[in-house]
Amino acid sequence: MKILRIFIILFLCMNFSQLHSNETNNILKNKILKNIRCLICQGQSVYDSESDFASSIKLIVDKKINKGLKEEQIYAFLRKKYGDWIIFDPQLNKNTYILWLLPLLFFLVGGAIIQKKILKKNEK
Amino acid sequence: MKNKFILFIVITFLIFCFVVFYKGLNNSNTYTPIINDKKRIPLFEAKDFNSNVYLDSKKIFNEDIFYIVNIWASWCVPCRTEHPLLMQLSKSQSVKLIGLNYRDNFNNAKNFISEFGNPYSIILIDKDGTLGIEFGAYGVPETFLIDKNKDIIKKFVGPINQEIVNEMKLIIK
Amino acid sequence: MLANQIGHYSLILGLLLSVLLCGVSIKDLNGSSKQINQNILSLSFLQLVFVIVSFMSLILSFINSDFSNETVFNNSHTTKPLFYKISGTWGNHEGSLLLWLLVLTLFIFLFLIKSREQPKKYRILTLLFQQIIIIGFFLFVLMTSNPFNYLFPIPTEGLGLNPILQDPALAIHPPILYLGYVGTSIIFSSSLAAVTQNYISKEWGQHIKKWVLLSWIFLTIGIMLGSIWAYYELGWGGFWFWDPVENVSLMPWLTLTALLHCIIVLERRAALTSWVVILSITTFTLSMCGTFLVRSGILNSVHTFANDPARGVFILIFLFILIILSLGIFFFFHKESSKKTNNFFWLSRETSILLNNWFLMYFLSVVLIGTVYPIFLDVISSEKISVGPPFYQKLIVPFLIPFLFFMSLGPKLKWIKSKIENKNSLIITFIISVMLTFFIIKNLTTELLFHTILVSAAFFLFFTTLKELFIKKFNNVSQTVAHFGFSLLILSILFNNILSSEITTNIKIGEKYSYSKGEIFFKKIEETKESNFNSIIAYFEIKNENGNIVELSPEIRVYNQPVIITSEADIKTTFLEDKFLVMNLVKGNEYFNIRYQVKPFMIWIWISVLLLSLGGLMSLFKKKYEK
Q1: What is the rounded CA–CA span in Å between residue C364 and residue C396?
Q2: pLDDT tens sequence across C543-555
Q3: Rounded-to-integer distance, Cα C557 and Cα C540, Å
Q4: In this structure, which topology does domain A2-89 adopt according to CATH?
Q5: Do C153 and C212 fall into the same domain?
Q6: Which of A5, C270, C294, C504 has the lowest tally of Cβ within 10 angstroms?
Q7: ipTM exceeding 0.90?
């Protein structure tokens, strides 16, 4: 059974190994579009939306990629026009320190508490 | 003692959350941010509606007066309700109206103008909607007020009404 | 119309019964008899009956398209197929609240029946706490969200049901989800009751475990149905968007999973008692919180119900009353279990469950903070930001690696104290996992190191649990099946993510589009008319490199009431991959925009969640066969 699985995976590998060399631009474009909020839809990304706004954004992103702009620059351009809200990935700036660091803080505090509890028990 | 401390923290935190959520309820939830800091108008090139020639933005906004950029389309129903107000505004000497014809069919747009009147000094063609994005627009209708420093100082999403017109008139005096 | 009256008065009677039940119960608390007053059982049953009657009345109004009822008017239409007229009952805010009441009253009645060997005071207190919740919801419905409001003059036609809600998966998604979601109310009530009675013990753990499992199974399947609906119906090929409403169903699931593991400890020895109570309170609190976030209009999402701040205020206040009440009871009544039983060696199953809790609480904090942070930021500083999939992925995925390892090792440890047996076989399994992963990943993606580690961890769990299933050394099949299901889930999601491909293009009828892997041929379109929409079906033939042709026919529907255009994707599913084709109109053109995706192992994602639930189901029935 394991051998069959390996065969299947090998088969897929051979089919898909070419994928990245030919269509990296498309993949980058899709990655960016998935990260942009469609502002006139409720909670969808531009990638998922068929609205007018989304189509226009798709064209602009296309143009910018062809002009050679990097991902971060395209986000910066859109942020300037519409505010941080249009990009789904929250940047790490003064508004979002708590957002990113609080869960990690919980993790560390939780770990410390558990460590203390276990070590305390070990001493007994 | 330790328990009481934890209790105090938890209660304070809960009260804080309650207040935030309560206030959050009363805030608008449609997330339409108003412009907080002034933004320069974008630099662009667009096709003129009547002459089919490409115009540069610097030339379009070259006069030392206020400008109103209005995004419209013949297929947009609310645009018809706001059109008479635009005609009203176009009579003012201290402001010029620039129209952005958004994702429209040329003939339909032309018919719209001849039927309802032309308040615009210049009409630009925005066939694919990308010019609207340069202005930070969501769609149609949308109106921008631009001051003499070429900064966008007001943005109105949706059709303008008499109240908005009065507000703009006060500013452009 | 008569149904309207009956429905409305049933609700009022149900509320009055709640008050009566509270009175009778409090009296019985101090009563001398050892058994619970039989009247309580009868009254509780009667309350359930009233809620059922009310619910049926609403369904009847929907079936008859009785537009004198405001809810029916807002959400239905005469041309709706019967099945969706019925499911439209709970597809709206008011109707879904009736579903809440139904599950609340049903579960307390079932609890009373199934808990006859439990201490009397504990049962009565559970009933009382549950009645507090029930009264709250009765008041909420009757005061702000009455499904039986009368409209005059009576409209001849309704406003219709959103067509994307007219789907079989979505029709059963709310009832199943609510059985899970709302079912956690019984865990909440019984934990509070048990705390006041100092009854958080092994016996109580064994008793409450059934209820935890029941809620957990329904919640898991409910969430899966929601994802299936999103995948098949929304047309974009995704199944999880980290949308606020999805997050809100995931959060109770995380705490419920943690609670389940703590109960497994509790039923053997009286340890982790604080965890159990806090998690019980938290799970239901999160359910209520979710209700608040979704129905109050405070969040912006594809799933939200109609926005009404007034309702939001009610739920907010109700929610905080519950939180303060439950925390108050916890602080006041909870006694730390004696030091003796809390001792366990660092290398033991108890520790691994603690670690499991630690990680689950971390995941919970990520989802919770990500979902509510924009609200806090907006209120405090008027800045609006979005928190979307990249945030959750960046914070959760790396932590899955140690989590998967702990999942593999934990069940191998014995209770109280253990040493790792069979170290050699574990190491061999680990090496096989890593090598297999490396061999696969090498050709696929540039982020080699990260993906290798992640997939290896998943494979490690996969192989260790697979081995368990065949060797059956430990008598814990249900747990192994569930953990195996989880490993399969992670593997399916990872490989689906890495191996998915898509082509987007504009194409005309009769045109052929060639790309690196094959050719898409747009054969023809057919237009037909259904009961409440016009249908445009497009026929495509897609040829891959080997010359195999697959036929796909996506559809565009133009609904009549309300006027909405939807795209229905055509999906061909095999065990190996899904082929997904969706089509959209391009305005003012004879072109159609198509998106063709190949998504490997899609069906394994659903199968693995079913395996997860199967594990839970096996545990639920375990006591009858094994001991």
Answers
A1: 10
A2: 988 888 899 999 9
A3: 17
A4: Helicase, Ruva Protein; domain 3 (1.10.8)
A5: no
A6: A5
A7: no
